[in-house]
Automatic annotation (TrEMBL):
Pfam families to which the protein is assigned, alphabetical: CBS, MgtE_N, PRC, SH3_actinomycetes
UniProt cross-references to PANTHER family, sorted A to Z: MAGNESIUM TRANSPORTER MGTE
Protein name according to UniProt: CBS domain-containing protein
UniProt keyword annotation of Glycosyltransferase present: no
Recorded GO MF terms: magnesium ion transmembrane transporter activity
Positions of the CBS domain: 352-410
Length: 425
């Protein structure tokens, strides 16, 4: 890392996403963020990279183990600690916490917002934050002007991110899957997490909440105003919404149910009546449901809906009217693979699988798991005593309940150990 050459300047926002290679040229991951220490005196010091490796795991790579860094490639010594990165109280993440932060220019010309942060390698090998790419805010003819300024020419760089905007961070999340956004939110300080979550639209936030652990999603929903929180719950899958409502304080849960759309609230109330480890507590009330006279083309169109998970899309539940749960009598199911073998105009009633085992709402998770595994299915119907479909249990919901409560936050080796203990009683 030592060099007699002039300082090498790297802009962090451009560095994010850059491939990280070992000395042999094999890619080990991609840069996710840069960790800096903001000091009371002197320029902030960059101490390491947060690198996303296989399995979406984020690990810390000290800059002392980086032999080359630029916007095209990062080369490391090959020694990467596989422990999941956890931000310390003294550390600040550039992309997650500094971008969009408002600062005041010391020359008295007004305020600006940070859009990028530059770090430079010093002759002693240290990396310091030296420059900020900022855009003027406020009023005046120069509003919107973008320029580079020395880090010591602004105040507020080390301020609390409470009023920090989320524009730049949201831009980096735009193409990520909900589970990956959930990973990003888990790494943020509480206030920053709520701010970013609040800027997501209802559908996007609903998808992300379904991927978060209990503590994080309760914290986010509790931080939203009641109307917004109710709208987000309306957008969630009923089973996930019910799980979340069950985790909230009783008074808050009651107020949210009153503000939700009546049909959505009714589904949630129905699911809350079941124990969480039964088929009724695991099921969703909104699988793909069609009458026997519907065509295969119609079934495929329903399976393509974005709000239908892959596990539920693999099976169409064919019933007598009404088609909303609780439906009329369950006639059977049509497997997506079977439907793809038939012409689009074929009626669902002519290719029914009538031999599928249905669950009762009170059946335990053990029976659910055995049936899914025995028949290699991704979902099972849940029916009441009259044979009416009341919901469906999918394999992903079962996995959520079989894994440890903190599986989203745990390292893979910890999760493997817990699952092994569970499997062996």
């Amino acid at each position: 890392m030592r060099s007699s050459a002039p300082p090498s300047r790297v802009y962090v926002a451009r560095l994010a996403g850059t491939p990280v290679f070992d000395p042999l040229g094999d890619q080990v991951g991609r840069v996710h963020d840069v960790v800096v220490l903001v000091r009371a005196k002197g320029s902030p010091r960059a101490v390491g990279l947060v690198v996303e490796v296989s399995g979406k795991r984020r690990v810390f790579v000290p800059l002392t183990r980086v032999t080359s860094v630029d916007a095209g490639a990062v080369i490391t010594t090959g020694l990467v600690n596989i422990r999941r990165f956890s931000r310390r109280a003294t550390e600040t993440l550039v992309v997650a916490e500094l971008l969009d932060r408002p600062v005041t220019l010391r020359d008295g010309s007004g305020s600006a917002v940070i859009e990028d942060v530059a770090m430079e390698q010093q002759r002693n090998g240290d990396w310091l934050v030296t420059k900020l790419f900022v855009r003027r805010s406020g009023r005046g003819l120069r509003r919107g002007e973008a320029f580079v300024v020395d880090v010591n020419e602004v105040t507020g760089f080390a301020a609390s991110p409470a009023q920090q905007g989320a524009t730049a961070l949201l831009a980096t999340l735009e193409d990520l899957k909900p589970a990956d956004i959930a990973d990003v939110l888990r790494d943020l300080p509480d206030a920053r997490r709520l701010e970013v979550a609040a800027e997501l639209d209802d559908e996007r936030l609903a998808d992300v909440l379904e991927e978060l652990g209990e503590e994080d999603r309760v914290s986010i929903v509790s931080g939203l105003d009641l109307e917004r929180a109710a709208d987000v719950l309306d957008a969630m899958q009923p089973d996930d919404a019910a799980d979340l409502v069950a985790e909230l304080p009783t008074e808050t849960a009651s107020e949210l149910l009153e503000r939700m759309e009546p049909d959505e609230a009714e589904d949630v109330r129905r699911l809350l009546a079941y124990d969480e480890h039964t088929a009724g507590g695991l099921m969703t009330t909104e699988p793909v449901i069609l009458p026997p006279e519907a065509t295969i083309a119609t079934a495929l169109a329903h399976a393509r809906r974005q709000d239908v998970t892959p596990a539920l899309a693999a099976m169409v539940f064919v019933v007598r009217p009404p088609l909303e749960t609780p439906t009329g009598k369950l006639l059977g199911v049509v497997h997506l693979q079977e439907a793809l073998r038939e012409p689009p105009h074929q009626l669902l009633g002519s290719i029914l699988d009538k031999d599928i085992d249905a669950l009762a709402p009170e059946d335990g998770i053990g029976k659910v798991t055995r049936l899914l595994a025995t028949y290699n299915l991704t979902a099972l119907p849940v029916v009441d005593a009259g044979g009416r479909l009341v919901g469906a249990v999918s394999v992903d919901d079962v996995l959520d309940h079989l894994l440890p409560d903190d599986w989203r936050d745990a390292d893979d080796d910890v999760t493997d150990e817990a699952m092994t203990r569970s499997a062996h009683g």
